[in-house]
Amino acid sequence: ESFPPLRDEAAVRVLRGRMKGIQGHCNSCYMDAALFSLFSCTSVLDSMLFKPFLLCDRNVQSILRDEIVNPLRKTGFVRARSVMHLREQLTEKGQCSSFTNAEKDPEEFLNLIMHQILGIEPLLKLQSGGQEQDCYCHQIFMDKQEDLVVPHVQQLVEHSFLSSDLKLVEIPSCFIIQMPRFGKEYKMFSKIIPSLELDITDLLLDSPRECCICGDVATLECS
């Protein structure tokens, strides 16, 4: 039996409290946080759980669906053993032998499971310096901004795209964003406020926008 993502009051009732979420074990935090974000309250990537992609590994797909996502949506809790089962499969299928014990970058995990194991098409098309690139998520890189003490996600995405000279070639079906982090010793921001909606108008390539001076369709863009 499959369960839909949790919404509104149901999400609060099922996910809040002790022994809720995905149980951490042996440096699994990067994967736990990514899986919780991707599946607990949204169905936008449920194709990963059901669709028979061309290169799809059905064993990994069934572990992801039956041992992680469905228990999370049904009871609000996933035991560490289930995540370890997935990590063992990723170690076996991937080129890296340390998925079961080492902390990884979430982008490395997403690239492995989406591209190499499930065979999903890239979710993002970006342009930088006239060159297009495909990817599965956008990791925010930016210099320290003194005026951003407790930023919103909207601000961080805009700063990141501006500093890296990036544009979205098209509106993505799913926009996965990795927040800035610098390991255990240094955090750029102590807190980041989630933006419940993300305005990507200024991030789109060749998107018609209003001139801030005359109100007509803009023909020039100033950084």
TrEMBL record:
GO terms for molecular function: cysteine-type deubiquitinase activity. Its main location: cytoplasm. InterPro entries: Papain-like_cys_pep_sf (IPR038765), Peptidase_C19_UCH (IPR001394), USP_CS (IPR018200). Keywords: Cytoplasm, Hydrolase, Microtubule. Residues 21-200 form the Peptidase C19 ubiquitin carboxyl-terminal hydrolase domain. GO terms for cellular component: microtubule; spindle. One of its GO terms (biological process) is protein deubiquitination. It is found in: Cytoplasm, Cytoskeleton, Spindle. Pfam families: UCH (PF00443). This is CYLD hydrolase. It comes from Aramus guarauna. The gene is Cyld_0.
